[in-house]
Design brief:
Layout (H helix, E strand, L loop, with lengths): L18 E5 L3 E6 L5 H15 L11 E6 L5 H4 L7 E2 L2 E4 L2 H5 L4 E3 L22 H17 L2 E5 L2 E5 L1
Parallel strand pairs: 2-3
Antiparallel strand pairs: 1-2, 4-5, 5-6, 7-8
């Protein structure tokens, strides 16, 4: 992936009403603000796709066009900006004391967290065996056959047999 970090971009340059294209040679990011217009989104996506096909790109590299939605930006996109040191809504503390002890301190702002990542750290559930899956399928098929089906058309309800 190419890097655009030499541009010294700041996150404050992005407006919720806008759509932006960031071309980083190996990847083209399309950042979409929450309050951007649908037509602008479609036009930016189309333009970024066309940009990926332009001559002058490095040979043998598959150019990726990536959609980035406001407040759900990937680490790769945030990395292109100076001072965008957040991970899942948490501010990272890079003070000398913490860096000297090789510790990374994450300051949590619980009001901004958007995803619960605790299931990622739970033990995996063992897959159901083939025999158990077939038994469950048979039970559910019986249940479905015994259910009555109704259709609501206008203000009338019809029973389907």
């Amino acid at each position: 992936m190419g890097s655009c970090s030499h541009l010294r971009l700041l996150p404050s340059l992005l407006s919720s009403k806008g759509v932006y294209i960031l071309d980083c040679t190996g990847q083209i990011f399309v950042w979409i603000g929450k309050h951007s217009q649908r037509l602008a989104r479609a036009a930016a996506w189309k333009l970024a796709t066309e940009m990926s096909k332009l001559p002058g790109r490095p040979d043998g590299i598959d150019i990726r066009v990536v959609r980035e939605l406001e407040e759900t930006e990937s680490v790769g996109f945030r990395h292109q900006f100076k001072g965008w040191d957040t991970v899942a809504g948490n501010k990272i503390d890079y003070t000398k004391a913490n860096m000297a002890s090789n510790e990374l301190v994450v300051k949590t702002d619980r009001t901004k967290n958007v995803a619960d990542m605790s299931p990622l750290f739970l033990p995996r559930v063992k897959p159901t065996s083939e025999e158990d899956a077939q038994l469950l399928q048979a039970e559910w098929a019986e249940d479905l056959e015994s259910m009555k089906i109704f259709v609501l058309e206008g203000k009338k309800i019809y029973s389907v047999t």
